[in-house]
Design the sequence.
């Protein structure tokens, strides 16, 4: 509000009457920058709850899918699957901490996380799962039988 008031006073001053185009643009861009950040926060406040819910659902979904690999891909070692479980757990802990941090903020504060960051984390989990699924079953060693004639 202070910037708006200053710019309004400046507009009615003699200085504005003799100002060039670049001075006007500089003041406009400064105000646009502030209004864009406000607009982004308003949009983010609306998107964030759905993004949180979506990530939580992905965490559950990929935990079940990873557990299901015991039946569908029994050749995967526990250490291979533990990487995925660690990613899921780390993401779950991170999300819980960020939700607490965000809940402590005012609407005008800088956000603790964005919905796009949650989408990125969800994609990272999906990619890690499909990397795990891409591990091929080891081929059985062929035993050669020699004919003893």
Sequence:
């Amino acid at each position: 509000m202070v910037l708006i008031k200053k710019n309004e006073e400046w507009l009615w001053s003699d200085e504005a009457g003799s100002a060039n185009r670049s001075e006007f643009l500089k003041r406009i861009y400064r105000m646009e920058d502030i209004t864009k950040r406000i607009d982004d926060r308003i949009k983010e406040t609306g998107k964030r709850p759905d993004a949180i819910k979506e990530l939580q659902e992905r965490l559950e979904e990929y935990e079940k899918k990873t557990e299901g690999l015991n039946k569908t891909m029994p050749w995967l070692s526990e250490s291979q699957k533990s990487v995925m479980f660690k990613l899921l757990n780390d993401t779950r802990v991170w999300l819980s901490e960020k939700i607490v941090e965000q809940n402590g903020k005012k609407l005008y504060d800088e956000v603790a996380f964005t919905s796009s960051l949650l989408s990125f984390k969800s994609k990272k989990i999906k990619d890690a799962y499909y990397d795990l699924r891409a591990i091929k079953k080891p081929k059985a060693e062929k035993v050669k039988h020699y004919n003893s004639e």
User: Anything to note?
Assistant: The chain is about 75% helix and 0% strand. The helical segments are 2-11, 14-17, 21-72, 78-103, 115-133. Residues 139 and 145 are 18 Å apart (CA to CA). The chain has one domain: 2-133.
